[in-house]
TrEMBL record:
Domain (HTH myb-type): residue spans on this chain: 10-66, 67-117
GO CC terms of this entry: nucleus
One term of GO molecular function: DNA binding
PROSITE patterns: HTH_MYB (PS51294), MYB_LIKE (PS50090)
Organism: Pisum sativum
Residue ranges of every copy of the Myb-like domain listed in the record: 10-62, 63-113
Protein name per the record: Uncharacterized protein
Amino acid sequence: MGRTPCCDKNNGLKKGPWTTEEDEKLIHYIQKHGYGNWRTLPKNAGLQRCGKSCRLRWTNYLRPDIKRGRFSFEEEETIIQLHSVLGNKWSTIASRLPGRTDNEIKNYWNTNIRKRLLRMGIDPVTHSPRLDLLDLSSILCSSLYGSSSSQINNFQTLLSMQQQQPLINPELLKLASSLFTTSSQQQQQQDYSNNQPCNPQIQNQVPPSHFVQFQDQIQQVPSTNSNVCTSVSPSFPNHSHLFETNVNTNPSNFTDQSCYNNQHSVPDIDWLENNGFGLSTFKEDIDYTPQLSNYNQYYGSDYNQNLMTHQTSNQILSTPSSSPTPMNSNSTCIIGSNTEDEKESYDSCNNRMKFEIPLHILDSNDFM
DNA sequence: AAAACTACCAACCGCGCGTGT
DNA sequence: GACACGCGCGGTTGGTAGTTT
């Protein structure tokens, strides 16, 4: 037996855009009686609408606390960060943005942010670079099935060329370099992956607990290929190119699996907050500070200017350049020569990876 | 000026979950 | 446990406004 429809399609109920009169009726009724029991509400309010339509109209448009107008810089930033963790959990994202509805955020994502990411060559679902835009197939194969010396040499040549004259999106190159990890690291990662949800999208939504745990593992594994070390944080493999990750938290704090949302296998923000890991705390402990270079691509130079003005603001989530902390080596990448320099400080390591974004790879639309 | 195209967003639809019986 | 119901969520559609050709 199927579900009974919320509203009979043949009983003359009105559909389509709401009129001012209908809006007024709905507002007046809710102000007087409150909302609840949406099924009977339209009849009581004298509306020829189904309850579902009334609820939607109220929650998405008529509610007094609805915020109208363009999304602010902070709001957009929050949406991107939350989406990278939660995926299409629009209602959850909306709950973190006062005055914004899930529908509004969803629309904004689909019409603005998503397209911008696509233009940048970033998969808006996984937040990872779209490798189909770059011929890295051989690199990927070698990373997965073992690298031949010639392949390594070719890749090193590519890196060398890139340093002299940037040819491709440095973030894509960074990802490629990260895939050039040693087999032992691959094995470690494989072992780790076996404990992850099967859904690759869900894998991108693993809470930081796994990240911290794996950090501990990987620190113990010396790279046999000294030219290239991994920069991909295992638990956020597809986000590390967007957010430098400073981990200062106690790993044990995140090992409780109850931090997952049972329904969706994503981090449960309520759980995090109830256990002292609200997003604000999150920001303090784990700094998902997007790399400036990435946001250069997101928003152009104005964005960086914007970042500077937000450095001191007290926001729920991290602002891209708000972290004065040097980047942690665990999430950064060393690409350089075979010299003792490889052992130099994290800062030097970071500097090597901080390519200036060549203007020719930026879409002018990214500045819009 | 008009047609074609694009962007935006309100609204609809189907499904799944929680709850009560 | 099975079923009915109410509700909310996420994906999609369709209308409209703006822009380009």
